[in-house]
Amino acid sequence: MKRIVSLVLAICLLIPNAALAADLFLAQAANFTPVLKEIIPLFEKATGFQVDATYASTGKLYGQIVNNAPYDILLAADEKRPDKLYADGLAEKPFVYAKGQVVLWSANKDFCGDDWKATVQNAAVKRVSIANTETAPYGTSSMKAMQAVGVWDTVQPKLVFGQSISQAFQFASTGAADAGFCAYSSVFTEEGKKGCFTVVDEAPPVVQAACILKSAPHPEAAKKFVEFLNTPEVQALKLKYGYK
Amino acid sequence: MDWTPLILSAKLAFWTMLLIPVLASPMASLLAFGRFRGKSVLDAIITLPMVMPPTVLGFALLVVMGPRGVIGATWEDVTGDRLVFSFSAILIASLVFNLPFAVQPLRASLEKLDPRLLESAAVLGLSPLAAFFRIVLPNCLGGLAAASILVFAHSLGEFGVILMVGGSIPGQTQVASVAIFEAVEALRFNDAFLMSAALVPVCFAVLMIINKINARRT
């Protein structure tokens, strides 16, 4: 019995070490997850580096970074926070790595047509999910689209707010919300393929910027990764997932 | 500064505290006095929300209470309203989440009850119902009070589960913990601080009350 306990304890002690052994630690805004999951193995193959990534909302990652989280690169969902990190001397100069697009997604194929405005105003659509309009750039962009076409006031009572664009999609994909303002990239996930979507042209593109952190534990690997983001392979992946 | 989330949290905590004895008492009695097969399984099921990550529990509840889930579909048939993202939804989630926190202290106080008291009552001709009101209830009042107050404080701080089934709708499901989280994310640290500052003394007072009750019992 004692031996089993010691063995289990030993294993538990070893596991975190394995996770810390990565050569590059990325902080990634949730919406880019499907693309990054494809980019990482390519990068690992090309360079031999081992990459770990954490996926959360840009706001949460920013909060962690200003409190000394040991990330190498922040891949944000906006320009605001990388700019702020740069201005505060916490990061290198930011660069744009992707431009995202908002879509209206629904698990119910009856709710998709050419006109997303009609869908959100449809009486049968009782709940519409959207990312937090204050902290999630996709939420802000979705809100601007609704304001631009003048449906913000009528749709607002139907809105349910996810903390990130991923949660907005989660609400829609479980059917808890009848439709949701999601990132184009979520359409390409396993769940996303089960539903249908309409591109929200009125939503301003979500300009996503990244920056290498000044406190990066692995600056060399970080530099390599940034270069890798400009390769044709990655460009093709971005296009595939609806980014420009 | 908008205080609605705090009021909403208080409302949620109050309703949870009020309704939880109705759910928890029968289960606690069953666990304390029942002799049946599968008792340890029932015990484990009731205790499960205590150890499961709130986000996992929340996601399960989101699916079950969504319009395609059993509870959500039935609710929509009966009331005509959508269950998820409503106050009822976060209240149900809160009850499920808090159940073990109420059942355990209640069960403990029931198990401490001297069986000879109930035997004497039966010998003296007291009906089981009368015995419940005149012997079981007064003896377990402390446990009941401790359970209710603990659940009240616990509901005030609820986060993960509510985040999943609530959808953060201001005035309906945006409770204090969610509002604080959002304020921090939006870098409105001052709002976050003020709301937290309002919550902490309430929770502290609640814990002091529980300590008082427990001290009187022993």
UniProtKB/TrEMBL annotation, chain A:
The keyword Ubl conjugation does not apply. Residues 1-21 form the signal peptide. Keywords: Metal-binding, Molybdenum, Signal. Molybdate binds at residues 58, 165. Pfam families: SBP_bac_11. This is Molybdate transport system substrate-binding protein. Belongs to the bacterial solute-binding protein ModA family. The lineage of its organism: Bacteria, Pseudomonadati, Thermodesulfobacteriota, Desulfovibrionia, Desulfovibrionales. One of its GO terms (biological process) is molybdate ion transport.
Automatic annotation (TrEMBL), chain B:
GO terms for cellular component: plasma membrane. The chain crosses the membrane at residues 12-33, 45-64, 84-103, 123-153, 192-210. The keyword Transmembrane helix applies. It is found in: Cell membrane. Residues 6-214 form the ABC transmembrane type-1 domain. It is a multi-pass membrane protein. Its main location: membrane. Keywords: Cell membrane, Membrane, Molybdenum, Transmembrane, Transmembrane helix, Transport. InterPro entries: MetI-like, MetI-like_sf, ModB_ABC. GO terms for molecular function: molybdate ion transmembrane transporter activity. PANTHER family: MOLYBDENUM TRANSPORT SYSTEM PERMEASE (PTHR30183:SF8), MOLYBDENUM TRANSPORT SYSTEM PERMEASE PROTEIN MODB (PTHR30183). Part of the binding-protein-dependent transport system for molybdenum; probably responsible for the translocation of the substrate across the membrane. Belongs to the binding-protein-dependent transport system permease family. CysTW subfamily. This is Molybdenum transport system permease.
